[in-house]
């Protein structure tokens, strides 16, 4: 499988089959400090593009193998909404998804592009990230492409939230001593008071980050949550609340899934059935998979991926 990975138990969205719209290389208009991918030059459009047809053909096979899937998530090694055939892809997925929901995880920047804005209106669920609303903090934490205008981004998030009829989620990810100041939290709160959404997830780093930065503690996250307007649908994203039905994974699926998304032992035990856990342990023993320690949490990734990321 080139594009499809999982299923993964998303902390917030349920059992999800991921579609990686940029499987070969990172293509993103941000270069966030906390990105779980290696640092890369920002771009404003994809240079490496696959057709919707080849993506949907793989999805059809995976949906048959994993009937427990609840959500089909558009994601990427980078920013999925930069994919130029998004509209056509969403239409093709709609034809085969049956009762599954479509979801995109986006950094929100392309919402100021009318064509992308219209495409996103056609999804069942949208998760928009909004880590900062003041230019200085935004530039430091998300390291956006020079074409991106923060005030247009913020305005587009507000407008989209009023027009969109699907399930809208906002995510704010906190990085220690960057966007966790009283001033920035107040500024984000002021914007969020104008946004119509189902849930606002406050989180922090829980994957190995691209740069040397630190997340904040769960207690601090809890403290921050009290600085927002109590009328807002604030939720603290925590791994412990995940529930999932274990699935069967082939060797290729295990490697492909961990390549896209490093997982902890807890994640693996939630996701994999007994036979798949045995296969995972075997791959670990054979050094096909290896572990990486970050902020006292052990993540598993393919050994080849660790080498690839170091070279970038
Ligand atoms: S975290 Fe997402 S938006 Fe930020 S650089 Fe990585 S892929 Fe891009």
N- to C-terminal separation?
A: 23 Å
Question: Could you give the order of the helices and strands?
Answer: EEHEHEHEHHEHEHEHEHHEEH
What is the overall silhouette? Answer: globular
- Rg, alpha carbons: 19 Å
Description:
The chain is of the alpha/beta class and 312 residues long. It is built from 11 helices and 11 strands. The strands form 2 sheets. It has an 8-stranded mixed β-sheet. Strands 9-11-10 form a 3-stranded antiparallel β-sheet. The mean pLDDT is 90.
Question: Main traits of this protein?
Answer:
312 residues, alpha/beta, 8-stranded mixed beta sheet, 36% helix, 20% strand, globular, binds iron/sulfur cluster
How would you concisely characterize the structure shown here?
The chain is α/β, with parallel strands linked by helices and 312 residues long.
Describe how the helices and strands are arranged:
Layout: E1 4-10, E2 14-20, H1 52-65, E3 71-75, H2 86-96, E4 101-106, H3 114-120, E5 125-129, H4 135-142, H5 150-163, E6 167-174, H6 182-192, E7 199-204, H7 218-225, E8 234-236, H8 251-260, E9 263-264, H9 265-271, H10 274-285, E10 289-294, E11 297-302, H11 303-311
Helix pairs in contact: 1-2
Iron/sulfur cluster binds at residues 28, 30-32, 35, 37, 78-79, 107.
């Amino acid at each position: 499988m080139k594009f499809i990975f999982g299923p993964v138990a998303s902390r917030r969205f349920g059992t999800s089959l991921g579609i990686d719209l940029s499987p070969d290389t990172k293509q993103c208009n941000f270069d966030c400090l906390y990105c779980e991918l290696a640092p890369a030059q920002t771009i404003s459009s994809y240079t490496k593009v696959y057709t919707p047809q080849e993506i949907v053909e793989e999805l059809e096979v995976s949906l048959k193998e994993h009937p427990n899937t609840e959500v089909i998530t558009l994601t990427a090694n980078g920013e999925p909404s930069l994919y130029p055939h998004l509209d056509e892809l969403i239409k093709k997925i709609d034809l085969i998804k049956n009762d599954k929901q479509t979801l995109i995880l986006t950094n929100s920047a392309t919402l100021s592009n009318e064509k992308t804005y219209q495409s996103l209106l056609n999804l069942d669920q949208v998760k928009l990230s909004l880590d900062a609303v003041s230019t200085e903090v935004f530039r430091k934490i998300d390291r956006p492409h020079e074409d991106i205008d923060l005030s247009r981004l913020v305005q587009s998030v507000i407008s989209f939230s009023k027009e969109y009829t699907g399930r809208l989620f906002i995510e704010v990810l906190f990085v220690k001593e960057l966007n966790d100041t009283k001033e920035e939290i107040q500024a984000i709160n002021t914007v969020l008071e104008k946004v119509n959404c189902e849930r606002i997830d406050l989180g922090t780093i829980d994957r190995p980050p691209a740069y040397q930065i630190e997340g904040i503690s769960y207690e601090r996250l809890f403290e921050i949550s009290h600085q927002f307007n109590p009328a807002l649908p604030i939720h603290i994203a925590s791994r412990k609340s995940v529930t999932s039905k274990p699935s069967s994974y082939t060797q290729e699926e295990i490697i492909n899934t961990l390549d896209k998304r490093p997982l902890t032992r807890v994640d693996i035990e939630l996701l994999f059935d007994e036979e798949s856990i045995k296969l995972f342990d075997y791959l670990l023993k054979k050094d096909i998979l290896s572990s990486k320690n970050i902020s006292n949490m052990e993540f598993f990734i393919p050994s080849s991926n660790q080498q690839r990321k170091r070279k970038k």
